Amino acid sequence: MDAKTEKIWMDGEFVDWDKATIHVLTHTLHYGWGVFEGIRAYHCHDGASAVFRLKEHVDRLFGSCHIVDIPIPYTKEEITGAILETLRVNKLKEAYIRPIVFIGDGEMGIYTKEVNSRVAIAVWGWGAYLGDEGLKKGIRAKISSFTRLHVNGQMTKAKVCGNYVNSILAKREIISAGYDEAILLDTEGYVSEASGENIFIVKNGVIKTTPLTSILPGITRDSVMAIAKDKGYPLLEERFTRDELYLADEVFFSGTAAEITPVREVDNRQIGSGFPGAITLDIQETFFDTVKGRVDAYKDWLSYV
User: Fold this and answer.
1) Phi then psi for 140, rounded to 5 degrees?
2) Residue 261, H or E segment
3) Which of 142, 159, 171, 208 is catalytic?
């Protein structure tokens, strides 16, 4: 987070950043039953600001609520409008956007008869999640000892607050070991995703990514797949193993926070040449041109502030 902003949208009203507080007995704080989104707004080449794939993010927020049975007391149109207005109120040309739907205070315990749903939207300046150097030269990743969530143990298609304890444990483990990001395997031992990103590998010109089994359906992932197909790159959605990851010519992560980040090393094994590969750089360049409004083919992915 670069710096706090002036206002946060909470339950339909703008409040000062320092006054956007909740009670210590807020249900989601104790049990993790809440959902959120990560969205980015970019300062475009023409001086305007635009939110990247806002509709898809709002759709996923509401889908997450539906999956985990949390009523949301606003329409999609109201949340979309609130996100854009929060950017305007804070006078941000470029920002990370965090809508969260959470259960307020009132009842404690696993089961609550009355579900006190609340919604907040915060925005702030945030640079490259895995570092500017990582975007250019690639990062070092490590397979975590923590397994990705089982599809019937947690709802992996929902962006649930409590699910991210799994990611936190994995990330803390590998950071303490001197790496930049964690890669988690699924419950059957196949590569799943990183702690907060989807993963792609390239071998002999063919791009491969984990299918929608144990992973969150990433919106940046979907964008990468569309860009790759439009460029004519062969692309497969199929499982792959960690040794196939080691043998890849290229590896990169995708995610709202991480954007398109190359991976130069996994488990002390150099990936390809040890530098971002040609296909990774090609997709990365098109992605950043897209979010800056330079690619007419993907203009409908942008919601102008």
Assistant:
1) -100, 125
2) strand 259-266
3) 159
